Amino acid sequence: MPDDAAVARDAAEAEAAFSHPAVKPDATVAYGEHPDQVVDLYAPKGDAHGSAPLVVLLHGGAWRAPYDRQHVTPFADFLARRGFAVANVEYRRGSPIPAQGGASPVAGRWPETFDDVAAAFDALPALVRDALPSADPRRTVVTGHSAGGHLALWVAARHLLPADAPWRTGRPAPLRGVVALAPIADLRTAEALEVCGGASAQLLGGTDRFEERLPYADPAALLPSGIATTVVQGRTDIVVPQAVSEAYADAAAKAGEVVGLTLLEDVGHFPLIDPAADACAVVAEEIAQLAF
């Protein structure tokens, strides 16, 4: 268990990250009929000329309903001010049935969370052509934080899903790369460590379905992807510990693929998406190395 100092530090980092006011997008587009099937688009700011690389952003929050895309809008704006076009994707989270007895909301919906992420990515090239002409979908980098990091790795590996998976694609996605931020990248390791209160098993429909559905949902089982991938992880993260990212990198190595693992000293979970934190600048640089 983390000690009191680690818990206090994590709380302070979270408060700092969430202290920034939400930033309105330049446009919002729908990829489906459900209210959560939308994408906020941010045009590149400043001296950007011509087309800009497209960063597709997937927010975290343990796949739970209370945590939506609003908390990463300052991060989306930060990236737009660095010259990127940004698509901040919303998706269905949590459970249609409220948690009982004061328990935490259930994490994720099966299969809706995965349905939405796959549908959003399939629709994005056409959506950005119409609503964000400054974006170049041919230069796309996917990034995501925490649970969103899991989804970023997953969506880049859809071509490796089992043959009967409804989300499987016939070929690798045309991506420049993936930058996963403190991702829940190895679901079995995350569950063993009780990350986010058992959220990984909840995402897959409960412990009785966990092993059965793991091949369809676990990035660590979908390797090698053949897509350039970097994981950025704070060494003092107590929300999604370093061991989860290391397990994913180890699985990639066993599959014959090199995954970049950038470990940041004295950084926890939330500075990676905090525009005022030095760690956020590191994240932007990692994205730029793949995008430009």
Structure in a nutshell:
By secondary structure, this protein is an alpha/beta fold.
Radius of gyration from the CA trace? 18 Å
CATH superfamily: Alpha/Beta hydrolase fold, catalytic domain
Query: Unreliable runs, pLDDT <50, ≥5 residues?
Result: none
How many β-strand runs?
Answer: 8
Describe the strand arrangement of the main beta sheet, using strand numbers: 1-2-4-3-5-6-7-8
What is the number of independent domains? 1
Strand content: 15-25%
| Helix segment tally | 9
Average residue-wise pLDDT: 95
The CATH C-level name is Alpha Beta
Shape: globular
Helix content: 25-40%
Describe the model.
This protein is α/β, with parallel strands linked by helices and 292 residues long. It has one domain (4-291): Rossmann fold. Helices cover 34% and strands 16% of the residues. The protein contains 9 helices and 8 strands. The chain has helices spanning 4-17, 73-81, 112-131, 147-155, 187-192, 199-203, 210-217, 242-254, 278-291; strands at residues 27-30, 38-42, 52-58, 85-89, 135-145, 177-181, 229-234, 260-264. Strands 1-2-4-3-5-6-7-8 form an 8-stranded mixed β-sheet, with helices on both faces. Strand 1 (27-30) and strand 2 (38-42) form a beta hairpin. The longest helix has 20 residues, at 112-131. The radius of gyration is 18 Å and the shape is globular. The model has no long low-confidence stretch (mean pLDDT 95).
